[in-house]
Amino acid sequence: MVTGAPATMRERREELTPMLAQYVDVAEEYDDCVVLFRVGDFYKAFCEAADEVARVCELTRIEREDSTGTYTACGVPVDNAPKYLRRLLDADYRVAVADQVEDAEQASGLVDRAVTQVLTPGTVVEEELLDEGTNTYVACVAREAEGTETDDTDDYGVAYVDVSTGECAVTAGDAAAVDEELARVAPAELLVGPAVPDGVVDGADCMVTERDPDAFAPDAAREVLARYAAADRFAPAERVAAGALLRYAEYTQGDDGTLEYVRRVRRYDPRRSLRLDATALRGLELFENHADSGRTLFDTLDETRSALGRRRLRAWLRRPLVDRERIDARHDAVAAFAERTLVREDVRDALSAAYDLERLVGRISRGRATARDLRSLHDTLAAVPAVREALDGVDALAEVRAALDPLDDLRELIDEAVVADPPQELTEGGVIRAGYDAELDEIRTTAREGREWVANLEASERDRTGIDNLEVGYNQVHGYYIEVTNGQLEKVPDDYTRRQTLKNSERFYTPELKRREDEILGAEERADALEYELFVGLRDEVAAECDRIGALADAVARVDALAALATVAVERDYTRPEMGADGVHLERSRHPVVEETAAEFVPNDAALPRGTVALITGPNMSGKSTYMRQVALCVVLAQAGSFVPADAARLPVVDRVFTRVGASDDIAGGESTFMREMRELTDVLHDATPDSLVLLDEVGRGTATTDGRAIARAAVEFLHDESGATTLFATHYHGLTDLADEYEHVVNRHFAATERDGAVTFLHRIREGAASSSYGVEVAELAGVPESVVARAHDLVAADRDGDTGDDGGDSLVADDAQRTLDDLTTNGHAADATPPTPDAGEGGVADLLADLRDLHLAETTPLEALNTLHDLQRRAAEAAGEVPEEERR
After folding, report:
1. pTM of the complete model
2. 619 annotated to bind ligand
3. Does 83 carry a binding-site annotation?
4. Annotated binding residue 642
5. Structure confidence by residue, pLDDT tens digits, 769-793
6. Where ATP is bound, by residue (predicted)?
7. Which CATH architecture has domain 578-880?
8. Is 622 annotated as a binding residue?
9. Do domains 303-407+546-571 and 438-539 have the same CATH topology?
């Protein structure tokens, strides 16, 4: 990656033209950036930098030659710059934009240029380069310099800021906390302090930026942070991280002072929200899904009407609550919207007119807001009274309603000052309303009267001179003129002065026309200058109200997110969860994403008292992973403030959700799938508490059966005896199911399937007890594995049944079902040659049969499932009565 001054230019700096020498000076000062240099209507790069820009932006390089030699150049059109800037940022380049800071017409010699902004992936503020409704963060991980004393037990500070909105927060923690917070924040760019050891941020999936170590010096960082907050409120590592980060943000924005719209630096404790590490975020597919559907939980919930609400909803999902009172309050608010359709729809309709207040405030504070930005602010403020009126009298929403300050004074000020549809460019004039400023009105009157006089001049001069084809016109070069064709020149009066000669005519002016011209042009120039001055003053006046606008933005975001959650609850039949239960209790729960994309979804119950370890067995594709995820997602949704996809829900407040679901590897990092699995398992076993929810899927499958089964069994025992976490543990190691007999809080659950004539039908229903088979070969056949392979697999299974597999199956050929021999010789857990159970026998008897029959949900059962279920019940009834099933009699 080429940055800084091109080497070929540096070497012959004294020989360059003044403009190229100026480019080299700028490039050397911003040596970590690609410099785009304003030349006319293009931003240009030269030599090696031109090669890079041309490659990334797919542009053509041009060979230039001057008195100093030949060099390559590449140009990005100014009018279309965002398109190419986006490509450079996506390729992890930093871009320094050097603009002309002097009027070319007034410059004597070389036009002065200076870098007006440094663009980086994490600090962009231009609307064209930002994703609507998504935060773009730059983060910083720092440590207090080595050798200093600190009374804080946490080693690292983690700070992040969204430069476009002004949101800024900081926390402290150990190396594991750093990894977790970076996963949650998902920054686009990361600064790393010099005292941070190698390896601490290796998992960061973003561009890492190196900064001058001096920026991380404790005193320097404290000085910067003090411009935004009381520095002593923060731990030493937090001060270093936040101060260095804010200094970098100031540098990229080209501002001499503070970023005024960064209203406060919030210190937070990750333990005050439901903790979701990178593995959990990925496993539960909250924000990323690489499957064909591409749907995530956030996509499913996003019924917001504004960018403010969209960002707030995303933040709630990233950091669900752990405070019972706050959770209940959020549920109360969602319920209030859900129960009042007209209120909800009135609010959502009003919020459709809301612009992104946070980013508007940022542009206003930086002095980059246009007249259209102020009108957007006005239009958003105009929508607030309708929202307040709709919420009037709704007790659960009284607090947020009170925070909806309509800022009537600011809205009226903007409306009085700025025309309804202003031009994009401030210098074009026509921005300020008539009546706002008396001096401006007077100047405009002068210009208008002058233009009216000119408009009438043509008719009066025709009458006075008798020249019927005389015309009055204007151009920017010669000003106002009277044009007379060559055939009428003898009629030109003496007071006409020649201004321009054309092929077929002459152009003249009169003393009065010249006076009026000077008057009109002078008035227009003064009007434009005064308009700009008035607008800047207005913008500064609005910027002074940043705190009030920011508070309103927060309230609008909350209202929008709450109304969106209520909309989802009503339209998709979610229920309000009862919080504070001693365990997870769900009736007919569904997976919120899968039910939206699947043609048919089978709901399932979950009854998991606190500390339960549920061993879940059953065939592949039967729904084990989906079931585990939907239980976890119901917990996450509930603590985020949402209702949940279930008929009824009683849920605990959990502190963390751990997942070890699905297979992944890190080949570049030298980690196999099994090693990655073991690292994730390590995190679970070290950190899970009795208040945690743990999902473990196929632990130990990546190694030899004996080793894997041993690891799985030991993990279950540890979770039961040591962690006490509520756990869903899916496995194909059927031998683990005997743990339910040995441990008080271990229970067996299985997903039912039926087999007839070699065809397997998945019922996707969870039931008590253990599965009798994983149907691995049958699933392989369904997947399209060649018939010869399937037939050979069946033969090997049969041979394995006849052989001695040793304790729990050993390392037999059928390694994915070590107890297949025993299971296939039994019916519902009873040996085929054993005495048939009595009608009131336990599992497999009439009592269980009747229980399963009672639990059937016929309204949600397809005809094929009904036939398969009926066949299964009929077979079990015959066995319970000691009869031979019908298919065996045949």
Report:
1. 0.83
2. yes
3. no
4. no
5. 988 777 788 777 777 888 888 888 8
6. 618-625
7. 3-Layer(aba) Sandwich (3.40)
8. yes
9. yes
